[in-house]
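Appendix B, Record 12. Input sequence as logged:
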Amino acid sequence: MTFPDKFLWGVSSAGFQFEMGDPSKIALDANTDWYAWVHDKKNIQKKIVSGDFPEDGPNYWALYKEDHKIASSLGLNSNRIGIEWSRVFPKSTGSVEVDVERADDGRIARIAAGTSTMEKLHQLADANAVGHYREMIADLRKMKMKPIVCLNHFATPLWIHDPTSREPPRRRGWLDESAIVEFWKFAVFAAWKLGDLVDCWVTFNEPVVAAYGHVMPEYHFPPGTRDFKAFKKVLCNLAVAHARAYDGIKHWDSVKADSDSASPADVGLVQNVAPMMPYRPEKDAAVARFASHIHNSCYLNAITGGWLDENLNGVEDEGEKKRYLADRVDWIGVNYYTRNVMKGGSALLAKLFAGLPYMPELVKGYGNECEANASSADGRPTSDFGWEIYPEGLVDALRLISKYGRPMHVTENGIADAQDRLRPQFIRDHLKAIDQAINEEKLDVRGYFHWSMIDNYEWADGFRKRFGLYAVDFQTKARTPRKSAEVYMRIIKTRTVA
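Logged structural output:
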């Protein structure tokens, strides 16, 4: 079997993780919640974060042309990058007024503004940052790579969210509805300024994972609290933010960058998808389905069919169908790394403390709950992160998301493997899974984007985890190909997996 002629071969990256690293600090962006989070002395002392800093990163901001040449040499025809909200608007856009309409339930159903508002936003924007992003995207196009531009990959401006501040006024990020409006301003401004270069957009990368920072402090994501009510509120606000940004991008990006694009603005959402498997099929099937609903489905249910599971009970209750959310996604990105194996915890505690029918628990020894560089309970190798290699789960993930009837891209798939022992076969096995999904199961999968082309700053884990096809010396910024780069290049060239 071979991959389709128009299949997109790419790599993925994110601004916060890749852009910084210029020794002169010209590329420094200290204006995000994540920057504050990883620099917080208490977080470092408690080992919540690594003590590594993103300003020592791979310096994509200055070295993008070099990286694009490397990407082109691999045979890539697409590249997923991010643009940082905090760079474009280093100061608050709250003073710029827009029209906000609400639905009967009180949530934001429409946001609108005219060209005069765009001009006001232009006055607040950092023109150098906007110009630099234009140059980066134009260079991708020059190198014959279709740009896919993500507008939010976890990091938010410090004026929206400051997770380390103990002083009022508190900037609570997605807990506050105002963040929806401010993100809309950023999204439509990006569409207005960059739409002639971009036809494929992503609003959010892994919004459910971002929301876990409010309920799973063990994930080490800001703000690092355990508040289920906050988690529900953030998820709802992020769903509304996506829908409003979707409408705004569609309106303000009216120019096709490529004649063969389906529309001037193809707007997607990137979801982390982990198949949830029952530890004991006879006892844990229901809890695994519920965990899958929370992690994989509830957000996508909202922006496709309009069901906003406001209480996260897994049941479509009266009043939870929202027309202002439905049919607000053109394609879905699937980020797949591994599966999870679930068992049921205390149902009583679940009902008492969270109003949930189940308390799902991850089973150690499977998925991302394994020892690093060892074997899972199923005898499968594990990565430097302790994530079980489970390529057949990618077919399960794509099958699960196919129910939404949208085209799919595998927007992230990779492994922390500094020695490159496992990555070559990891790539082969996961691309075989995509081959199966396309050619045997007839699923509409249109692209594969490896995470990542070069080593990067891995959030709270800093530089400890190396995902790159190319190793990066973070002192000199030199890029050195690993064997897996040649494996990926050969598959792209032949469009087959040996």
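Residues 228-252 form the longest helix (25 residues).
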